[in-house]
Amino acid sequence: MGIVAVRPLTPEPGILMSPPKYVDLLVLAAALAVFLLGGFPLLGYAVAAACWLVQRAVQAYATKRATAELAAGNRQKAMGIVAATTLGRVWLMATAVLLVGLAEREAGLAAAILVLVLFTVSFAAQGLSHLFSEPEGQGAA
């Protein structure tokens, strides 16, 4: 009898459940039901949702630009894009929550809590996504 080398069983890419890329948008949609059923101010939801969607669009654009710059070998420019858009997105959300809070205190609180939940869910999903993704350069051969 000879020794037979057997390739270890590894799942094919995409088979394992990874956190959804858009889980924050699912939470945003579910939050509408919570706001409606809970009697929370819809102004807070509307402002938080609108700003969240805008910042997600900015994030997608920035990711695309940064990836292109990295592919071109411009690491500093890519990092500058990521840094500037990250700060800009945070300022956008904070300013929106502040303004709606000045207009209507309860709506501002509702918007702030919704934004906090959305940022937490988004960061957790991004972290889990990076945790479960294959390291670059180690794709299946």
Structure description:
With 141 residues, this protein is mainly alpha-helical. It has a domain at 42-132. The chain has helices at residues 23-38, 42-71, 75-103, 105-132. It is globular and about 50 Å long. It starts with 22 loop residues before the first helix and ends in a 9-residue tail after the last helix.
Short note summarizing the structure:
This protein is mainly alpha-helical and 141 residues long.
Number of strands: 0
Helix-residue proportion = over 70%
In N-to-C order, the SSE pattern is HHHH
| Arithmetic mean of pLDDT | 85
Strand content: under 5%
| Major beta sheet summary | none
Distance between the termini: 29 Å
CA gyration radius, whole angstroms: 21 Å
Low-confidence sequence ranges: none
Helical stretch tally: 4
**What gross morphology would you assign?**
globular
What is the SS-derived class? mainly alpha
